[in-house]
Amino acid sequence: MIKPAAQADLWRPPALDDAVVTAYLDRLGLDSAAERADPPSVAQLHRLHAAHVERVPYETVWIALGETRGMDPVEAAGYLVAGRGGYCYQLNGAFSALLSTLGYRVSWHRAGVQGQADDPAGDNGNHLALTTVVDGRAWWLDTGLGDGPLDPVPLVAGAFGPDDRFRLRPSDAVPNGWRFDHEPGGAFVGMDFPTTATGPAALVEKNIEISTSPTSGMVRVVTVQHRTPAGVRIIRGRMLTERPVAGSATVQELSGYAHWRDVLREVFRLPLDDVPDGRLRAVWQRIEADHAAWQRNDAS
């Protein structure tokens, strides 16, 4: 069995202020007083993780709005408390700070998501993965994959999840590391991460690259996604895809700006009430233009 990182002297996520923790747990739909009174446990870890994946969406609307975000997990928690989402660095960063505040010892890992089968695998830093140890057992945590696992995963090789559609195994690309093989039809092929822990400094350059480069998928396509116990929902551009745990996927085209806003608010819990309407309409106009260009290219 591959062991988790053991460097006790490395960087650790900071604690959050009391008011932020209360608001954060409220966002997750959990009882703040009860969660803060409970000591770290496997049951609580599952509760927090599943609520986070379901209720705080993976989203790149903030990139389309021209916003910039760094690697500070306290700052990331502020976005989430304000009703926003984010991508892996914010979602896992904030979650690591919440767990740290609740008494968990959490490690960051420089990871790499393999988008397509012909992309190289490895820990290139385009993803942040987390691990922790509870009651002597190591766990992989990941609230930042969009359509990744709903629950934390024991660091033991094997199949898991609904119908054993996910797999965790030793990595072929990262020595002494781990490989997550996604389910068929998932948004990416897999993800690799090392057992060695790291801190924000190792991911800063990649965060800037994938949130600003014109060739980045995060920049090119406005995406919102989350997993629930019932399955996965993903908006890419103006297309909404729903992949239930059982049954076939469905795809529908969002009819317009009002429909998009309603789905963001009601389905993904992303109200964006702090953003001026004109700025959001400009994002939708870009989505419509990109969709029209895609249709022309597809027809040619």
UniProtKB/TrEMBL annotation:
Database matches in Gene3D superfamilies: Arylamine N-acetyltransferase, Cysteine proteinases
Pfam families: Acetyltransf_2
One MF term in the entry's GO annotations: acetyltransferase activity
Record SUPFAM superfamilies: Cysteine proteinases (SSF54001)
Similarity remark: Belongs to the arylamine N-acetyltransferase family.
UniProt-recorded name of the protein: Arylamine N-acetyltransferase
Organism of provenance: Plantactinospora soyae
Highest classification ranks of the organism: Bacteria, Bacillati, Actinomycetota, Actinomycetes, Micromonosporales
